[in-house]
């Protein structure tokens, strides 16, 4: 359909539109008109992606005098491909109505691993290996040698692309990653470097969060993006966690040992160059004296990673004299690595500020702050001078230089934490040095604190999410942060330190109550259930959780997804159920599949789970609230008729990194510890259906949000923990769930929940009118309905 929102003609590729999609577009247009940033929450399954794409591309078509670029950021490659598929469908509709005037160039950009068409390179086992294999064939010095020696291997696809020069362009259209690979094979051009080249000319670019938020990647990929761009962060409920990871570094003892090997290899390379080409080292020294850390003529194939510090914090000065000579720089690195080894040789937890840590390095190792700041740039320059191609072999020393640059650059928002063991297993040594950025998200802190690996680790963790995203807010015209679970929405501006011009949360319009949330607080024996530390191992709690699942598998058709608060708790409860015979009772009704920390095993389990649901056998999938399944896998339709959240997925609150971050949020942003923990726990539980106070709510919302993926779908969600009955916990859940959570569904026992589930399933089996025209709750708008809304104002929504 085609309709007007004020002066903008919106091209929407479907015959009908949801009321919330229309109001979503209206609010989005307000933000674009104001050239400001916005926060928009709309339940998953309501067509958020196509609403975004339709409005922004139509807005660009209507504002030809001031064209805008759309930069659409996704979390995963799968989400990127889905977005590009939607955009291709929309683009075809626009071309049908406007012809050549609607032509656009839209591309997806991913790593070499996902775009390379050279079988010798793409067959490498991981991303770093693919990058290094590519560099060995495309680096400028390798190609120079090939010009003199025909036996020197190069990449034919890159050579063809380079020979085409200005003729290597993409015709107008929408290109998925597969489309780029196919086009590259057809032309004989490298699709990765072609896509990177075309990014600056494209109307729409779809890529990962890291391409904007991680300074090391953004400095290479996104530095040419124009200010007149609209940036969309989709599924951005965990964007603060991504920001933390972007400015955080982890180093184990193995990393320090690897760094020593890297330094020794670099020394050997320096000695070799002194014998065959000493002039190259002198030229580098002279360049550093002049204040040029890198040559200005680097080709795209030579560029490695940018400085890990944010653009405004990078020193525009000459490299300090004490690290200009390659030999002197390596001596500094050796002293730094030795200092870190000594710091890790401890049996007690230590915490320092960056200022005191840098002062300690200066006094004990003789390395001043300015030398630390320049470590990364100096290493990059040296590796380029030595013509190193196997960059994957130098990740250890790169990590050390990342750490040095960040700790030398930032005085606030970071802390240095040394943990010699995991606090939950104090007899197992696990030295961890952690530099925590106090403004970044808690997510990284959690993942580090939950690591049970006995390997020693050094971590630089950021606590202030606003640090990494500030350059994005400052640089681009409009930034849209959107997701199905942003509640409480007023917390994000404080976490990210920005002022949105529009901040709205939308409800889902439904013709029937197809969502049935329940809060179960006790078993059939009336004993309370909870995963509180003092209750989680209680045999009565374990038994009641098992009986709940046994009862539900006997009446719920198709798939059931169960989320636990941690891997260790899931393992323990499954073992108890197996010993007591509960697991056998469950498997009499449905097959059981379990998520593990191994990606291959989990992928296989998910595939077999879907096959069991498809054939009518039905299945139960056991997962973890903060695991991979909770974040990115949809259990729509018959794959997920019920989600059970066993407990409240609070973070491990004794983690020193988490405690440091909570203190920073309290002191800097006046965010109470309890509010933040609850927010995080509950939001992630929600996303399983639709897509520990505050932190816990985020995790809970993520989980339950994976079941309802469209309005034609239906599903139940059970919050099995007595703490969910408390209003202060429950109120942090997204509004679209709270609107369906009736008082009668609170404080339930197992038999009461069973009765409600039976009634709900019986109701869902009845035919219904999908548009809502007969019920007075119109949920599907026609062209005529939209025109009326345009005339009467968007507030006249028929929910």
UniProtKB/TrEMBL annotation:
Q: Which Gene3D superfamilies match?
A: P-loop containing nucleotide triphosphate hydrolases
On whether Nucleotide-binding is a keyword of this UniProt record, the answer is yes
Pfam families in the record: DEAD_2, HBB, Helicase_C_2
Query: What SMART domains does this protein map onto?
Result: DEXDc2, HELICc2
Q: Which InterPro entries match?
A: ATP-dep_Helicase_C, DinG/Rad3-like, DNA/RNA_helicase_DEAH_CS, HBB, Helic_SF1/SF2_ATP-bd_DinG/Rad3, Helicase-like_DEXD_c2, P-loop_NTPase, RAD3-like_helicase_DEAD
Q: What is its EC number?
A: 5.6.2.3
Q: A single GO molecular function, which one?
A: hydrolase activity, acting on acid anhydrides, in phosphorus-containing anhydrides
**Cellular compartment(s):** Nucleus
Please give the biological process terms from Gene Ontology that the record holds: nucleotide-excision repair; positive regulation of mitotic recombination; transcription by RNA polymerase II
Q: Note whether ATP-binding occurs among the keywords.
A: yes
- Tell me which UniProt keywords the record has, alphabetically: 4Fe-4S, ATP-binding, DNA damage, DNA repair, DNA-binding, Helicase, Hydrolase, Iron, Iron-sulfur, Isomerase, Metal-binding, Nucleotide-binding, Nucleus
Q: Which GO terms describe its cellular component?
A: nucleus
Q: Which reaction does it catalyse?
A: ATP + H2O = ADP + phosphate + H(+)
**Which cofactors?**
[4Fe-4S] cluster
The Helicase ATP-binding domain covers: 7-285
Name the family.
Belongs to the helicase family. RAD3/XPD subfamily.
Entries under PANTHER family matching the protein: DNA REPAIR DEAD HELICASE RAD3/XP-D SUBFAMILY MEMBER, GENERAL TRANSCRIPTION AND DNA REPAIR FACTOR IIH HELICASE SUBUNIT XPD
Q: What is this protein called?
A: DNA 5'-3' helicase
Q: Which organism is it from?
A: Linum tenue
Phylogenetic lineage: Eukaryota, Viridiplantae, Streptophyta, Embryophyta, Tracheophyta
């Amino acid at each position: 359909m085609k309709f007007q929102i004020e002066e903008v003609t919106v091209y929407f590729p479907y015959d009908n539109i949801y009321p919330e999609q229309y109001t979503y577009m209206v609010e989005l247009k307000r933000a674009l008109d104001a050239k400001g940033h916005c926060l928009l929450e709309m339940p998953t399954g309501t067509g958020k992606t196509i609403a975004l794409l339709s409005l922004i591309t139509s807005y660009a078509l209507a504002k030809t005098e001031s064209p805008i670029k759309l930069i659409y950021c996704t979390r995963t490659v799968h989400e990127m491909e889905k977005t590009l598929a939607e955009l291709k469908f929309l683009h075809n509709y626009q071309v049908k109505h406007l012809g050549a005037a609607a032509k656009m160039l839209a591309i997806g950009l991913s790593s070499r691993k996902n775009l390379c068409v050279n079988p010798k390179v793409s067959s490498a086992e991981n991303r770093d290996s693919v990058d290094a294999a590519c560099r060995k064939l495309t680096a400028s010095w390798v190609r120079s040698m090939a010009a003199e020696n025909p036996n020197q291997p190069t990449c034919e696809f890159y050579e063809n692309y380079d020979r085409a020069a200005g003729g290597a362009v993409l015709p107008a259209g929408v290109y998925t990653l597969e489309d780029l690979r196919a086009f590259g094979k057809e032309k004989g051009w490298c699709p990765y470097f072609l896509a990177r080249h075309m990014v600056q000319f494209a109307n729409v670019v779809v890529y990962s969060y890291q391409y904007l938020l991680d300074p090391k990647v953004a400095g290479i990929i996104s530095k040419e993006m124009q200010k007149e761009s609209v940036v969309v962060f989709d599924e951005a409920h965990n964007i603060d966690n991504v920001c933390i990871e972007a400015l955080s570094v982890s180093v184990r003892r193995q990393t320090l040992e690897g760094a020593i090997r890297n330094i020794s290899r670099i020394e050997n390379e320096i000695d070799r160059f002194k014998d065959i080409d000493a002039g190259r080292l002198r030229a580098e020294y002279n360049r550093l004296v002049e204040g040029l850390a890198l040559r200005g003529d680097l080709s795209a194939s030579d560029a490695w990673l940018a400085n890990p510090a944010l653009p405004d914090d990078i020193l525009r000065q000459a490299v300090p004299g004490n690290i200009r000579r390659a030999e002197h720089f390596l001596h500094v690195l050796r002293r730094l690595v030795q200092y870190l080894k000594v710091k890790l040789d401890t049996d007690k937890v230590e915490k320092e500020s960056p200022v005191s840590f840098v002062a300690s390095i200066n006094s004990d190792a003789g390395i001043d702050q300015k030398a630390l700041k320049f470590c990364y740039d100096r290493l990059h320059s040296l590796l380029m001078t030595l013509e190193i191609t196997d960059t994957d072999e130098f990740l250890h020393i790169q990590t050390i230089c990342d750490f040095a640059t960040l700790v030398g650059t930032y005085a606030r928002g970071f802390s240095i934490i040394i943990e010699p063991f995991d606090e939950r297993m104090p007899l197992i040594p696990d030295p961890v040095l952690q530099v925590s950025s106090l403004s970044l998200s808690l997510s990284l802190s959690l993942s580090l604190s939950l690591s049970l690996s006995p390997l020693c680790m050094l971590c630089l963790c950021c606590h202030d999410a606003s640090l990494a995203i500030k350059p994005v807010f400052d640089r681009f015209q409009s930034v849209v942060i959107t997701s199905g679970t942003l509640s409480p929405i007023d917390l994000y501006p404080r976490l990210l330190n920005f002022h949105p011009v529009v901040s709205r949360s939308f409800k889902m319009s439904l013709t029937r109550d197809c969502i049935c949330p329940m809060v179960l607080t006790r078993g059939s024996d009336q004993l309370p259930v909870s995963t509180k530390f003092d209750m989680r191992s209680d045999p009565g709690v374990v038994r009641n959780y098992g009986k709940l699942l046994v009862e539900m598998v006997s009446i719920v058709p198709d798939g059931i997804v169960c989320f636990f608060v941690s891997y260790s708790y899931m393992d323990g409860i499954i073992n108890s159920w197996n010993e007591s015979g509960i697991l056998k009772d469950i498997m009499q009704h449905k097959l059981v599949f379990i998520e593990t920390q191994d990606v291959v095993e989990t992928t296989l389990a998910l595939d077999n789970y879907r096959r069991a649901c498809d054939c009518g056998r039905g299945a139960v999938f056991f997962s973890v609230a903060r695991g991979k399944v909770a974040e990115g896998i949809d259990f729509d339709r018959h794959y997920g008729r019920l989600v059970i959240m066993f407990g409240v997925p609070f973070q491990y609150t004794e983690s020193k990194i988490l405690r440091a971050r909570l203190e920073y949020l309290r002191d800097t942003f006046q965010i109470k510890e309890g509010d933040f923990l609850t927010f995080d726990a509950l939001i992630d539980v929600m996303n399983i259906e639709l897509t520990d106070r505050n932190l816990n709510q985020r995790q809970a919302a993520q989980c339950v949000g994976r079941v309802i993926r469209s309005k034609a779908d239906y599903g139940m969600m059970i919050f099995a923990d007595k703490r969910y009955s408390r209003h202060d916990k429950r109120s942090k859940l997204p509004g679209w769930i709270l609107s369906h959570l009736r008082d009668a569904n609170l404080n339930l026992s197992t038999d009461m929940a069973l009765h409600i589930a039976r009634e709900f399933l019986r109701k869902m089996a009845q035919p219904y009118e999908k548009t809502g025209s007969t019920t007075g709750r119109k949920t599907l708008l026609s062209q005529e309905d939209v025109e009326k809304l345009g005339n009467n104002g968007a507030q006249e929504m028929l929910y």
